[in-house]
Amino acid sequence: MKDLIEKINAEFETFKTESESLIEKGVKAAGPRARKSTLEIEKLLKEFRKVSVEESKK
């Protein structure tokens, strides 16, 4: 689970960096990268929920 949380944090940092590039610097190419990152975060959060529920049942 610790590894999964590290992946979530890393992906969130990627999203934060790309969204700041898009908003503050106007880098248009950062938009698709930020959106891709949100999809990855969504997938990781679903996995976290699954693992968390399994752990609580033990």
Question: Which descriptors apply to this entry?
Answer:
mainly alpha, elongated, 2 helices, single chain
Structural class designation: mainly alpha
Helix content: over 70%
Would you tell me the overall average pLDDT? Answer: 96
Strand content: under 5%
Low-confidence segments: none
Shape: elongated
Distance between the termini: 14 Å
Topology pattern, helix = H, strand = E: HH
Task: State the helix count.
Answer: 2
Please characterize this protein's 3D structure.
With 58 residues, this protein is an all-alpha fold. 88% of the residues lie in helices and 0% in strands. The longest helix is centred in the last third of the chain and has 27 residues, at 30-56. The chain is elongated. The two termini are 14 Å apart. The model has no long low-confidence stretch (mean pLDDT 96).
How are the SSEs ordered, and which strands pair?
Layout: H1 2-25, H2 30-56
